[in-house]
Design a protein that fits this description.
Elements: H1 2-20, H2 27-33, H3 38-45, E1 58-60, E2 66-68, E3 76-80, H4 81-87, H5 95-98, E4 104-106, E5 116-118, E6 121-123, E7 128-130, E8 133-134, E9 148-154, E10 181-186, E11 194-202, E12 206-217, E13 223-233, E14 242-255, E15 259-273, E16 278-281, E17 306-321, E18 326-343, E19 348-350, E20 361-383, E21 386-408, E22 414-417, E23 420-423, H6 427-430, E24 438-456, E25 459-476, E26 479-500, E27 503-513, E28 517-518, E29 526-527, E30 533-534, E31 538-550, E32 553-573, E33 576-597, E34 602-616, E35 634-642, E36 648-657, E37 660-664, E38 669-673, E39 676-689, E40 692-701, E41 709-711, E42 718-720, E43 725-733
Parallel strand pairs: 7-10, 16-19, 29-33
Antiparallel strand pairs: 1-2, 3-9, 4-5, 5-6, 7-8, 9-10, 11-12, 11-43, 12-13, 13-14, 14-15, 15-17, 16-42, 17-18, 18-20, 20-21, 21-24, 22-23, 24-25, 25-26, 26-27, 27-31, 28-30, 31-32, 32-33, 33-34, 34-35, 35-36, 36-39, 37-38, 39-40, 40-43, 41-42
Length: 734
């Protein structure tokens, strides 16, 4: 305990030193800083932000850079720092914020994982970009909320404009290409100095303390340094579960007359104790509806359940202007992470009546390293009356993953049922140590990306393609076993027509590929089809829609059509599985989003999603027309902020997910996951303590303390909700 306090004191001392040495705040700036939350005023007053301050008018269009959302030929939402602050509890998954976008549904309530689905397809931290750099996060790791300036959410066909990324997604062997991207843009130092301390209390004693220090210096404030650090410790609203994290990050940037450079780097150490919330059905389960969700306060973890990940991460971006029309750019990123976990099997199985079946204890050590580099050129020119905005880039993405797992079948583990359970064994007596992590796989992707936006009058045409060469090295028991290479082209095109400046009609298309692989056994998993080669499978996305911006509100209506490989493991009992490609999953649907200031005092964010997800071309047509596992047809979200005056605001959010279905193995039928609705409610108040601006916030997540099951896109595994969670925070601008 004393060591943890010493580390905390050291971090605070370093940050205070950064705040006080070498930077002098002018008297006028100091006086201004003491009269309100300047960051929020800047956000709401920016010409790039819709009135109300929750959503931006611009977002990133891959290697072509930031563009107006109206000019991007697919669905795009760019959440601001204010949106992050409104819906954030730092002890909960980042998906808690992302679900303000109707295309996203959370797949887990536990901070032990980062899973969510976009338009029905499962995703996680592997699919997030950091300042435009892909593949630096994982299924367990995502950016902490206190470093986020904005979140660009692309839920449409854009694969060909982003360059190459890793195919692994940490959930289903990389079989599923992502239906979109999530780009995290980190906070930079602003022209107004920032020295901010925030303390948050949530759950049953989880305390988070963050400090943010930002200064600009040099001629015309050309240099900027921002330091963000967090210390979190304590219990979640789920009894027995804890979220503990220590991190420190710097964002160093330079903005010159002809160049811009940004470096984000830092270290993190995160541990989750308990909070196992995934379940699955035993092969004998034959009921048509899941049993009522148990009390979400139930903790199904043994005392030693834990997951830890620590490491460092960095992203470097540079843009160099050559003349008025041309510039070159470079992006680099690297992450090194180390982790281990002790838990029961990834999902807890039960049968009719909610009775648990045998569970397996496992211990795992893992190491991962990702490196990304990109260099390119972009410019603009005209051919007759056609304006071109072009970009050309080459990039290389490399990753290597080491792992070791030890498990035991001894005893029955968790016994009883969903409402009355116990552990039948002394866990310490059956624990095994997996030993040092060994090479598991290595992947290298090299690509060339070309993009051009052609503008003619009221119309624009996006043409882009990425040529990708993928090289896979698969290991078995730590030794090279199989090499796989694949070459493919990822085309993207889109057409936008704007009859008037604030109305855009568009159509878009893209293609991507799943990861090819060789089926290999491990010491804990045995495949009946070992050594089978599974080729990459093409996925196509199409979208057509209309965007309208008027009186401070942006509305998007879109129709989309996505297909993906249906690749999964069939459980045969014990350690036996069969990996199969069983046709395709087809996702067709409509989405409407409404964002912006509705009236002088009301601001909205959210929308509605209709999703018809079915299977096609299955083996012998046996499941053609069937539902895709875990995907609901209807869902919607509505977040509202009411500001009676400049000091007060009240925020509420409703999240609704319709019923979904998963396979019932025993009868070859389906089992229903019931629908659910949750409500969040909170308030914010700005005041002063002496001359120090203070923002006080209170939030209650899952106000009604609803117990519910959560479906996961394309998976028969499902999650259990977290109980009602209260959060209080105080932010001081010193």
């Amino acid at each position: 305990m004393s060591m943890m306090k010493n580390k905390k004191a050291l971090v605070m001392s370093v940050l205070c030193a950064v705040a006080s040495v070498g930077f002098v705040m002018s008297a006028s700036a100091a006086e201004q800083a003491m009269h309100g939350n300047l960051d929020e005023v800047v956000v709401e007053g920016s010409r790039d932000v819709l009135p109300g301050g929750l959503v931006r008018k611009t977002a990133k269009l891959g290697i072509l850079g930031d563009k107006s959302v109206l000019d991007i030929p697919y669905s795009e939402m760019s959440m601001t720092e204010k949106t992050v602050a409104l819906f954030d509890d730092p002890s909960q998954p980042l998906a808690n914020i992302l679900t303000a976008n109707p295309s996203i549904r959370s797949s887990t309530s536990s901070p032990m994982y980062s899973d969510f689905s976009m338009r029905g397809i499962n995703m996680n931290g592997n699919h997030m970009m950091l300042n435009g750099v892909p593949s630096l996060y994982s299924q367990f790791t995502t950016p902490p909320s206190h470093v986020i300036d904005r979140i660009d959410i692309t839920s449409g066909p854009n694969a060909g404009v982003n360059g190459v990324s890793m195919s692994n997604n940490g959930t289903n062997s990389g079989a599923t290409p992502a239906p979109g991207t999530i780009n995290i843009v980190t906070k930079r130092a602003t022209d107004t100095p920032v020295t901010r301390y925030t303390q948050t209390y949530s759950g049953r004693g989880n305390t988070s303390e963050t400090i943010e220090v930002g200064r600009r210096f040099g001629k015309d404030n050309e240099w900027g340094l921002r330091v963000n650090a967090e210390y979190m410790d304590g219990k979640l609203s789920l009894p027995g579960a804890e979220n503990n994290e220590k991190n420190i990050f710097i964002n160093f940037d330079h903005r010159g007359e002809k160049s811009e450079t940004n470096l984000f780097a830092g270290h993190y150490d995160r541990r989750i104790n308990g909070a196992q919330r995934w379940f699955s059905l035993d092969k004998t389960y034959n009921n048509s509806v899941l049993p009522d969700a148990p009390d979400s306060k139930n903790n199904y973890d043994f005392d030693g359940t834990t997951k830890r990940m620590y490491g460092w991460i960095m992203a470097l971006n540079h843009d160099q202007k050559m003349d008025d029309n041309w510039s070159w750019f470079a992006n680099y990123g690297q992450s090194n992470r180390f982790g281990n976990k002790d838990n029961q099997s990834a999902s807890i199985k039960f049968k009719n009546g909610g009775e648990f079946v045998k569970n397996v204890y496992s211990q795992m050590n893992e190491i991962a390293k990702n490196v990304y580099a990109q260099i390119g050129i972009k410019g603009k020119f005209e051919t007759g009356e056609v304006k071109h905005n072009v970009s050309f880039a080459v990039d290389r993405s490399w990753a290597k993953y080491w792992s070791a797992t030890a498990s035991t079948d001894a005893g029955t583990g968790l016994s009883g049922n969903l409402n009355n359970w116990w552990f039948a064994n002394d866990w310490n007596s059956i624990k095994k140590n997996s030993g040092a992590a060994k090479p598991s796989w290595e992947e290298t992707n090299v690509g060339i990306t070309v993009a051009d936006t052609l503008e003619y009058g009221k119309a624009s045409l996006l043409l882009a393609a990425s040529k990708k060469h993928e090289h896979m090295e698969m290991y078995k028991n730590g030794a090279p076993n199989y090499t796989y290479t694949n070459d493919n082209i990822l085309p993207t095109y889109g057409f936008t027509y704007k009859p008037v400046e604030n109305l855009a009609m568009y159509v878009g298309h893209t293609e991507s590929f799943s990861r090819g692989l060789k089926v290999l056994n491990t010491k804990d998993v045995y495949y009946t089809n070992e050594n089978q080669i599974m080729e990459p499978v093409k996925s196509k996305q199409n979208e057509i829609g209309v965007k309208y911006q008027n009186a401070g509100v942006m509305t998007t209506l879109s129709y989309f059509d996505i297909d993906e490989a249906n690749r999964y493991d069939i459980f045969n009992g014990g350690k036996s599985y069969t990996k199969v490609d069983d046709g395709k999953n087809r996702y067709k649907g409509m989405e409407v989003t409404v964002n912006g200031k509705l009236t002088e005092k009301w601001t909205a964010i959210g929308g509605l999603l209709y999703l018809d997800a079915q299977r096609e071309h299955t083996n012998n047509g046996s499941k053609d027309g069937w539902f895709v596992n875990g995907v609901a047809k209807w869902s919607g979200v509505l977040g509202l902020e009411y500001k009676p005056d400049e000091d007060w605001s009240v925020v509420g959010r409703a999240n609704w997910v319709d019923k979904a279905y998963i396979d019932s193995a025993a009868v070859g039928g389906k089992t229903e996951i019931p629908s659910y609705v949750t409500f969040d409610l909170g308030a914010n108040y700005k005041t002063k303590i002496n001359t120090v601006p203070v923002k006080l916030s209170a939030m209650c997540y899952n106000v009604a303390d609803k117990d519910y099951w959560m479906g996961r896109g394309s998976s028969t595994t499902f999650g259990l909700s977290m109980p009602r969670t209260f959060m209080l925070s105080a932010q001081f601008d010193i």
